[in-house]
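Meet today's protein:

…
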Amino acid sequence: MAKRDYYEVLGLAKGATKEEIKKAYRKLAKELHPDRNKAPNADDQFKELQEAYEVLSDDQKREAYNQYGFAGTQGFGGAGGGDFGGFTGFSGATDFGDLGDIFGSLFGSAFGGFGQSAQNMNRGVSRGADIEAVIKVEFMEAVFGAERDVSYKRKAMCDRCDGTGAEAGQKVTCHTCNGTGQVVQMQRTILGTMQTASICPTCHGTGQEIKEKCKKCSGEGRVQVEEQFKLNIPAGIPDEVTLRFSGRGDVGKNGGQAGDLFITVEVKPHPRLERRGDDIYLDQEIDVVTATLGGEVVVPTVHGDVKMKIPSGTQPEKVLKLTGKGGPKFRGKGNGDQYVRIMVKIPEKLSAEQKRKWEALRS
């Protein structure tokens, strides 16, 4: 598939804000995910969308892309190649396996439930609404996984009337449609008399009406309840992934299918570390003497502080690799790596003695 402009992929202008980029991505991710998008090239479309979002949602990558195009995304901080080992971001459909019926990869799976059958519509059956929620997790929780208690409100079937909406379950034949669930109207046209049928406005297609409304649900057949369950967050989960739980949304009317619960996981930033896929990135400042002569510095990793060797003659912005010090691999075994970009600190003020020594070095 030919590479398209990232802004074109997201349907945005070049000056789009970060919020507009995130909003467009969420909308398109739900539409284009292979579980819902049945086009032959669904996987390619979804990967293209993820690649575009990865670049445009990152200020450094976006600036480079705006200036140099696709070539600007290579190298440090880029999408695919260069000093940081060619990391291309999290892409592709994600299978959460034994996590149950949950789906992950940036914004969820097919919502399902669209297109009810005519039979269901005639008897007033409707699918319940989907529920969307956001849960924020700490940086380390996303790296190593966590268990969180989730509480949310949904509409459940009324246990007093068993979802009928009628007190003691008593219903009578609808007086408007005589139990057919439809009303027929005759209309004269230039082509003759036309007959049209529509869903009964009184019983909404059920053919029955409530004699006395349920005292608990006021005739709706559903009541609002608070649900609680434990959410297992897998190790290495990317930021902005949406998990789907089938049937945990609102219960449908008149026995209709329940909607789904969608939980978007937002990862809080770390003060110093940055995670891209399974790899960790860090800017580490060292003094000019250590950069010149070499030595050791202590750097933070997700596994704790470690000593890292600095080779003599290390240049500013050189990238050093700590093998296996990244996060657990989201799909696979082992850990990713940590990449440390060296920032050499040049002294701004010198004492007379320090200045004398530097002058001696220069001479």
